[in-house]
Amino acid sequence: MYKWKKLGRIFNPKDYQTEWMKEFAQCTSTLIFDNFVRIYFSCRPHKDSNNQAKSYTAFIDVDRKKLSKIINIAEKPVLPLGNLGSFDEFAVYPTSVIRNASDVLLYYAGWYRTKSVPFNTSIGLAISKDDGKKFKRVGNGPILSPSLTEPFVISGPKIRKFNDRWYLFYLAGTQWIKDNNNPEIIYKIKMATSEDGINWIKYNKNIIEDILEPNECQAGPDVFYLDDKYHMYFVYRYALDFRSNIKRGYRIGYATSNDLFNWSREDKNVGIKYSDKGWDSKMAHYPHIFELDGNHYMLYNGNDFGKEGFGIAILNNE
Fold it and tell me: CA nearest 156: which of 134, 130, 185?
């Protein structure tokens, strides 16, 4: 069984506010450099006069030898929001990065607003030629979008490469339901594969079984290989009454696989839980796993969907 030892919170956006970053530091992803680790995250300004939100992606650099020490922070978002009418007009969130030769690829969900429901999303791709400080879109449209079998909310990309093949783990909406006249999206974890990182073949199957209810929501999948097996950490919650009810809100789940296509859910072995008090005592969200100098680390968000930033834990193999 793997167990995670919490090392504390690294970043709280309220301590580093700018015009475009007032709150939230969600959905982390990392790049490893010789002397530091670059941590990408999505943040938000305050809502506008119409109570509408936007989201940008930024980064911090932390000392490789002391991950709690912030040595640099992005001066502006790494990718501007999309043009008028584009799929990413209002958000570049969430994101996942990976190196490809001398380039850095940024996979992200773009948000566009709709009328009967709050939003819809698709997944886009941008490329950096300068070690991931700024990115340029490969095109004005998405690389993965709603389709015949996945009609709503294609989001939450996590990119991995195993055995020279690209794997994109993401979430896809299955239906919108009403909660006191407020629409809520139901979504499941999906997977797609690619030979080039641009053109994708969807697996068209929910890869994680439900345990709470048929409308269980699943998100934030991240996968790594260790001890001859693939491991996925993700989050799950009840469909309704999850925003303020701690018993129905997001918590981290766990699954294993031998082939990346067939997964066995083993939440009892997740090895991490809510803290007794503080910033991560009511919710755990958006886990991201990275390997550094022989150790595996998990970055994760806490209360209020990451409104109070993210922390880190180290894997203890027991």
Answer: 185
